[in-house]
Amino acid sequence: MHTREWLTATILAVLLAACDGRNAASAGATGAGEASVRNADETGSSSAVAAQDPDVAGETQEAGEIQGPVAARSPRDIYGFDTWVDGLPDAPGSPHISPRRAGMVYDRTRSQAIESVARHLQGNCSRDAWLFAKDFFSRVHEPEDLDILIRILDEALQTPHMSDLAENCLEALGRSQQAYCAPALLRGLEHAKMSVRIKAMQSLVQAGDAASVREAWRYFSVVDGKGMEGWLQAAVRHLPGDELARTLRGLLADPRMEPLHRMVVEHAIQVDPAVAVQVFSDFVGREPAGLRGLLAVLRHRSGDAGGSAMLLDMLRDEAPQVRHQAISALATGGAEDFLDELLAATTDPDPDVRLAVIAALSTIQGESVDLALDGLTLDEFVDVRRAALGVLVQRGFSAPLEDLVETVRRATGTRLQAAMEDLVGSRYPGAVPVLAERMRGLNGEDRERMLRAIGLTTTAEAFVVLRDEFVRDEPGAEEHLEIIALTMANCRGAEFAMLELLDELPADDYVRRARLMKTLGNVAADRTDPEIKAAIYARLREVVADQEAAPQMRLLALEYARRGLGPEHVSWLKTVSRAGGRPMRDALSDQLFEFF
Predict the structure, then answer these.
(1) Most buried residue among 124, 235, 354, 522 by CB atoms closer than 10 A?
(2) Per-residue model confidence (pLDDT) at position 473
(3) What does the buried/exposed string (b/e) look like for 547-562 if buried means 16 or more CB atoms within 10 Å of the residue's CB?
């Protein structure tokens, strides 16, 4: 098309769209060119539509890309909200207000929604939608849902230019951690491209089983080092003990596999000691120097007196690196059988040896051990001292830590700084009150440094101090509130108290509520406790569904709840979108179209 003809068509399309704004609802039924022009008129970005809509061919939107005038327009301008909160931190913006499917109702079924997510793995969408798709299938467990992803994987495996999609599908199947997916992963090992075969082998670690690992062995020679390591990890995880021992021993005995021997050893020493001893049975007496300690411990733990004798010799060796190797190996198990030697090593002249002794003694109970650790709290080397203090905190001993508390209360200068660092490094809850006491009267950067120190104790007690600072009546600087909110995420054991704080904050305290929701989103992403994750995501979804909440708060809550959305939440979000007025309905529908 000539330039003049293109310009004429463009102007005509824009004029037609201006005559009836609701024509945007028919964007999905028009040609790609007209759809792009109409959406460019509404959002200032024509490429976002093609990237989002699987029915319209187009370019891929780059990570976090905000094009043209979109960055200057807020959802208030685009959706027409009557009420809006200006200056809200981390406000939802243009990456999630495309593709502007104005007036369209999201009517995809559960299966269609999951298929849309799976196809986003190809990357023809916003980066956020792509990342959401990569993470989504860790929350999908039903075979019929996984079948959708498997079907798309098979399509990609048979299409030469779709190897990137195949890799992402294989990774997503691995994230599901369902052995149901293992046959599909094996099909990925037959692909012509090395990167696809590697991803298939790596995905067997989480989503394989013993049968699939045995079958994957046939492809061991057609993958590179990364793929081989993936197979080894899958074998360690899924093969029964005797079979695993035979397999690893065979790899070590094969001279053609010499480049892999170190990798095999690293995995073998992590399995059950009885299995590991079988793996290394042919190497007794000629162990590599760097593995002598670990192999001696494995032999000792399996009842081999020769391993016990070797450990004793190493513990009494003149070379500190040999003593260190033996003690570090004992920290993996069997340390209680060498208690006298370990107690004697607490006075070893080498600080690395003393540090290794603390790790080995940490699993042994007894008054003699407690006294030895107490003595190490006075060590001249800071790492040794703090390691000993940390173990005593775990054991419930506070006497040496209370001495540090008194030092922090009274000292100044470098002595104060050293005592504070020791207390913070030990994660001692009793450090929080004295740190809060020293914080009184401080302002600016000095106060913020003290707040960070309190947060770095990672205790539930620290949250109480941070909470009081967070809700102080006098308006703090925006940056100050942000630092506190970020620091609160460190407080282990205070997750449910954070949820209570969100309920206690006034509904119109938008800045604090926005900061705290971000903290909760970070906590949910970081913690492994499913109860904590579920509680936080459920509370964020309540904010999304709250018809009385400010629209901007609802959209922001949806941003932070996204990592907890599963297939079951598609119908929930559709229901929520219908319950409000048109602006919120359009905004939530756009979110559904973008991510599902």
Answers:
(1) 235
(2) 67
(3) eebbbbbbbbbbbbbb
Rounded distance, CA 517 to CA 544, Å? 12
Burial string for 63-77 (b: 16+ CB within 10 Å, else e) reads eebbbeebeebbbbe
Contact at 8 Å (CB) between 537 and 558? no
Maximum separation of any 2 CA atoms in the chain, in Å: 92
d(CA 16, CA 97): 23
Three-state secondary structure string covering 182-242: HHHHHHHCCCCCHHHHHHHHHHHHHHCCHHHHHHHHHHHHHCCHHHHHHHHHHHHHHCCHH
Backbone φ and ψ for 75, nearest 5 degrees, come out as: -55, -30
Q: Report which of 319, 325, 322, 358 is spatially closest to residue 342, judged by C-alpha positions.
A: 358
Joined together, the tokens standing for residue 386 give 């703090």
Identify whether the C-beta of residue 70 lies closer than 8 Å to the C-beta of residue 45.
yes
Q: Which two tokens stand for residue 7?
A: 């310009």
Peptide bond into 99 cis (omega under 30): yes
> Would you put residue 441 in left (φ > 0), alpha (ψ -120 to 50) or beta?
left
Measured distance CA(197)–CA(359) in Å, rounded: 40
Distance of alpha carbon 101 from alpha carbon 48, whole angstroms: 11
Q: In a 3-state reduction of DSSP, which class is residue 411?
A: coil
Predicted local confidence at residue 148, as pLDDT = 96
- Is residue 26 exposed (0-12), middle (13-18) or buried (19+ Cβ within 10 Å)? middle
60, 124 in Cβ contact below 8 A?
yes
Euclidean distance between CA atoms 571 and 46, whole angstroms:
29
Is 58:32 a contact under the CB 8 Å cutoff?
yes
Structural contact between residues 125 and 116, judged by C-beta atoms closer than 8 angstroms:
no
Three-class secondary structure of residue 568 per DSSP: helix
Of residues 571, 580, 566, the one with CA closest to residue 534? 566
Tell the residue number behind the tokens 């009150």, with chain if given. 433
Q: Are 425 and 458 in contact (CB under 8 A)?
A: no
**CB neighbours of 380 closer than 8 A, spacing ≥ 6?**
none
192-212 burial: b if 16+ Cβ within 10 Å, else e: eeebbbbbbbbbbbbbbbbeb
pLDDT at 497: 96
Q: What's the Cα-to-Cα distance from 11 to each of 5, 14, 16, rounded to whole Å?
A: 10, 5, 9
pLDDT means per 10 residues, the chain with 596 residues, are 43 37 34 30 31 32 35 70 76 55 81 94 88 93 94 94 94 94 95 95 95 94 91 93 88 81 78 79 69 83 86 92 92 89 93 94 90 89 88 83 84 84 83 88 82 89 92 72 90 95 92 92 93 96 93 90 92 88 87 90
| Nearest by Cα to 85 from 503, 477, 512, 577 | 512
Closest CA to 360 of 377, 386, 380, 337: 337
